[in-house]
Amino acid sequence: MASLIIAAIFFVSLLSTATVAHGRRFVRSYDEPCKEMTLYFHDILYDFSNSTANSTSAVVASPTALLRAMNTTIFGTTVVFNDPMTEGKALPPSLEETEVRAQGLYLYDGKEALNAWLAFSVVFNSTAHRGTLSLMGADPSTATRDISVVGGTGDFFMARGVATLRGDAVEGFTYFRLQMDIKLYECYV
Ligand SMILES: *[C@@H]1O[C@H](CO)[C@@H](O)[C@H](O)[C@H]1NC(C)=O
Ligand SMILES: *[C@@H]1O[C@H](CO)[C@@H](O)[C@H](O)[C@H]1NC(C)=O
Ligand SMILES: *[C@@H]1O[C@H](CO)[C@@H](O)[C@H](O)[C@H]1NC(C)=O
Ligand SMILES: *[C@@H]1O[C@H](CO)[C@@H](O)[C@H](O)[C@H]1NC(C)=O
């Protein structure tokens, strides 16, 4: 019984840890996020016209031989992006200069279904936050999906958590907006 209680205390202390370093307190709690934010991710794919001003992403690899042979999917198509992120849904006045950006790639990895994989950094350069969060994970075409926040730098030094993505708008094939609810469960506060 005593050893069970000791094991339980040990387990609870593993789940919720707070230490002080760099003048900030490291908080880890898997029940309660230590930081939460909602950001909108705007992706404007180059539409193959000669107007390049409004594009923040571009296909860099496509199509694969498998794609050509199947005629049906976009398997292997890879898109590189440097997208604006905003707190509200509206596009920012400048697509190139925003305080928060998403920089990375997504690639389509579904042979039959529309299924993607995302890997990118959210780069913060505002008075509120400086630093980066690195996110990656499977992005199936479900209403919501979770991807991992695998690390961070600057204000987000050693951060970890989960980001829930939800498709918020689609216009043609060139524009989509994602709502991204980021919850950190390990962070310095
Ligand atoms: C492409 O460029 C030509 C010549 O500058 C212009 O007339 C045309 O409107 C442009 N097309 C698009 C889609 O921007
Ligand atoms: C840029 O693209 C977005 C999304 O498609 C559109 O709403 C906006 O009007 C475009 N802006 C310009 C200047 O073409
Ligand atoms: C793919 O499309 C081409 C041209 O439209 C057609 O000739 C070919 O049979 C198609 N292949 C398959 C696997 O559907
Ligand atoms: C960060 O913001 C400052 C001030 O707005 C700006 O001068 C600087 O160029 C920005 N840095 C990057 C990498 O965007």
In short:
This protein has 189 residues and is mainly beta.
Structure description:
With 189 residues, the chain is mostly beta strands. The protein has one domain (29-188): AOC barrel-like. It contains two helices and eleven strands. An eight-stranded antiparallel β-barrel has the order 3-5-6-7-8-9-10-11. A hairpin with a 4-residue loop joins strand 7 (115-125) and strand 8. The chain starts with a helix and ends with a strand. The model has no long low-confidence stretch (mean pLDDT 89). One 2-acetamido-2-deoxy-beta-D-glucopyranose (NAG) binds at residues 49-51.
Mean pLDDT: 89
Bound molecules: 2-acetamido-2-deoxy-beta-D-glucopyranose
Strand order of the largest sheet: 3-5-6-7-8-9-10-11
Query: In which range does the helix fraction lie?
Result: 10-25%
Estimated radius of gyration:
20 Å
CATH class: Mainly Beta
Quote the beta fraction: over 45%
Unreliable segments of 5+ consecutive residues: none
Report the span from N to C terminus: 37 Å
Supply the CATH superfamily name: Allene oxide cyclase-like
* Total number of helices: 2
CATH topology: AOC barrel-like
